[in-house]
Structure formats: structure tokens, C-alpha cells
């Protein structure tokens, strides 16, 4: 079992690998495209599970699913047209936790006007 900090570190590392591979020019990508990417990654996870792959492979797929979901959140353009890009928020929370400082509650923003 992993701690939340270990799990987040794995996802952050995967996000960095994705950025290196694909770049960061995803503003304006429609939700439907993100959903297709996430569905593909989830399908790979399901396939690994159903084929009884080793736990290491299943965990790698889980991290990829989480990283794609985080990327979607990073680059999502809400239907109101406002760019939603809180890059660094996850890292700030990790830094606070490492320092023993309680993280603030997440900011809730309306998705639609």
C-alpha cells in the first residue's frame, strides 16, 4: 500500500514524462477528446487487470489513468471559455505536506456560468 504522498509523486512523475513526450500545448482541446484519451488509458488498465498482469503493470496503468485525468484538469477550458490552469497547485500541496503544514481546502469554482 502506498501513502497519498507516494501516489501523488508517481502521478507527478508521469505528468512530467507526458509533458516531455507530448508537450504542453493542449489549451482548447475539447472535453470529448480528453474523454477519449482517458477511456483509452482506462481500457489499458482493464486489459492489464483482466489478463492478470503483474501488480507492477497494473499500478503503472493506474498512474497513467490518474496522470491523464490530472492533465485534463490542468488544460481544461470550461464551457464558459475561462482557461482553467492551476499548474503547480498539486506540487504546492505536496510541499506543504512535506513541511508538515496542513493544506488548504480546494477552491471550488463553478464549471458553468
Most strands sheet: none
**SSE run:** HHHH
What is the molecular shape? flat
What class would the helix/strand composition place it in?
mainly alpha
Instruction: Bin the helical content.
Output: 55-70%
Number of helices: 4
Number of strands: 0
Mean pLDDT: 80
Distance linking N and C termini: 41 Å
Compute the gyration radius: what is it? 16 Å
Provide the low-confidence segments as ranges.
81-87
Number of domains: 1
Strand content: under 5%
Care to give the gist of this entry?
The chain is mainly α and 113 residues long. The chain contains 4 helices and no strands.
Features:
mainly alpha; 113 residues; 4 helices; flat; 0% strand
Can you walk through the features of this model?
The chain has one domain (4-98). The radius of gyration is 16 Å and the shape is flat. The chain is built from four helices and no strands. It is 62% helix and 0% strand. It starts with a helix and ends in a 15-residue tail after the last helix. With 113 residues, the protein is mostly helical. Helix 2 (31-50) packs antiparallel against helix 3 (55-75).
